[in-house]
């Protein structure tokens, strides 16, 4: 029988109710046992106390007769004394079977001996007033001690034991009930939170540009119905995403040929192959040439993204000197920096030498980062390119600028595809995928108004240590379900 989510909640509360009722019934049963113990106390343990009271009164009467005998030698007084002494000894023997502790038994034996000596001294007329007073005091004290010990044993062995047992058992059941309630509550909340947490992670992934993944099936209840509806939506979104990628790829291919032809035709016209140009015509052709170049670069970037998503962008790994490559990229970009009166410098910490990499792609990354630094650095600013070995296993390249910086809200978005808020275009997502494909990582440190530092690392793989498995593609270092996931957890190193 399959239970709905609501029925499971009702079942959990019903179990808690049953547990509460069971605890209450058990507490009532324990109170009943306490009542039975009290009745047992009254019926069995109060007679010994009554015997002790009778002994006390009997001996007081004997002591009174003994004192009267000093002034009155009436034989009847002696008969009364001996009769009371006989009753006293009989009561002591009856009391002996009801004593529970060795201490009480010892007191009773001493009391019996003292009373026998007291009776013998009276009958032999060897009891004077001083000795009579002392023995009377001793016997009364022993009777009182016996009463005290008997009451103590009575409380410890009966009523208090039952009360303590009832209390401990009730507390244990109450603890188990509370623990069971927490278990039921934890089970219900876990059952609800697990799919909701999966919803949250998938939605966050969609917001970051990840592909939509279906959720695992859960129980056939309300939550299961929501999961099923979401999976249908995910399937439709995946289909739309594939259609979008196919459209972008096809469009890029279709645009690349006419844009190349347009650029070549513009170049020929600027070279005055078809005739001389006046100044106005040359300016217009230069605008066309520049815009065609931008469009051609955009289509190239779109094709690269499409290839990365399909895992079809192989790296041509070869041994190359990273310092020389960085220096060449810096010199290539220097004319653009000079137009904005920017100071470029290169810092090398520790000699890096040659490492295994795709030189064309790494040069593309460095130029892209330098171009962004120039774009967002105000006139007379400074840009530094640093190459250093950070460990025996990797080398780090950093581009620091004194530009406007990046807000915290944009720090986690600038590597996303098609994010337009920061004005970085497609260069950063492509650059990061290239670095990830090399087995490195890329991150940014920035503070608004104080500049930015873009850094990436590359593993120190030497050419003589390359193996077939080192010929990786962009898809091998990214999420296999979404090669363009720009925020894999292991590479989120934003400051």
Task: Tell me, rounded to a whole number, the average pLDDT.
Answer: 76
Q: Which class of secondary structure composition applies to the elements?
A: alpha+beta
Report, as a whole number of angstroms, the end-to-end distance.
53 Å
CATH topology of the largest domain: the name is: Four Helix Bundle (Hemerythrin (Met), subunit A)
When the domains are counted, the total is: 3
Which architecture of the largest domain would the CATH scheme give at its second level?
Up-down Bundle
Largest sheet: 5 strands, mixed
Strand residue percentage: 5-15%
Q: Radius of gyration in whole Å, from Cα?
A: 51 Å
Shape: rod-shaped
Major beta sheet, strand line-up: 2-4-5-7-6
Oligomer: single chain
Number of strands: 7
The CATH class label of the largest domain is: Mainly Alpha
Order of helices and strands: HHHHHHEHEEHEEHHEE
State the helix count: 10
Describe this protein with a few key phrases:
495 residues; alpha+beta; Four Helix Bundle (Hemerythrin (Met), subunit A); Helix Hairpins; Heat Shock Protein 90; 3 domains; two-stranded antiparallel sheet; 64% helix; rod-shaped
Account of the protein in words:
The protein folds into three domains: 174 residues, Up-down Bundle (Four Helix Bundle (Hemerythrin (Met), subunit A)), CATH 1.20.120; 87 residues, Orthogonal Bundle (Helix Hairpins), CATH 1.10.287; 142 residues, Heat Shock Protein 90 (2-Layer Sandwich), CATH 3.30.565.10. Helix 1 runs antiparallel to helix 4 and helix 3 runs antiparallel to helix 4. The protein is rod-shaped. Helices cover 64% and strands 9% of the residues. The chain is built from ten helices and seven strands. 22% of the residues are buried. The C terminus is likely disordered. With 495 residues, the chain is an alpha+beta fold.
